[in-house]
Design a protein that fits this description.
The chain contains no helices and eleven strands. It has strands at residues 3-7, 10-12, 18-25, 33-39, 45-53, 57-61, 69-74, 79-84, 93-101, 104-107, 111-115. The strands form two sheets. Strands 2, 4, 5, 6, 9, 10 and 11 form a seven-stranded mixed beta sheet that branches. A four-stranded antiparallel beta sheet has the order 1-3-8-7, with no helix packed on it.
């Protein structure tokens, strides 16, 4: 059974940091492209960051988070991380983990991140 379980969300003040984790099971993690998306109330789900594992990890970031967020993965622990720094109120959203390999496309249930003073 495929599972993606996000954790690490919460309430943080502007300028603060959070580290999200997504624990994967039920599939060969190292073969999958892993991504973080986010969805704010009333808005579409948008890509935040992606990491692939072809010839070494390669990453891609949305312009809005470049220089503030870092995506990484641990293939021995089947986990992908999102280190978020210099958080802004606009970063408030539900953050989702996604795993893709060809036609296989899996999503986690999401974790809430709220940036507010």
């Amino acid at each position: 059974q495929v599972q993606l379980v996000e954790s690490g969300g919460g309430l943080v003040q502007p300028g603060g940091s959070l580290r999200l984790s997504c624990a994967a099971s039920g599939f060969t993690f190292s073969n999958y492209r892993m991504s973080w998306y986010r969805q704010a109330p009333g808005k579409e789900r948008d890509l935040v960051a992606t990491i692939v594992n072809i010839g070494g990890p390669s990453t891609l970031y949305a312009d809005s988070v470049k220089g503030r967020f870092t995506i990484s993965r641990d293939n021995t622990e089947n986990t992908v991380f999102l280190q978020m720094s210099s958080l802004k109120p606009d970063d408030t959203a539900v953050y989702f983990c996604q795993a893709v390999n060809g036609q296989d496309n899996y999503w986690g249930q999401g974790t809430q991140v709220t940036v507010s003073s």
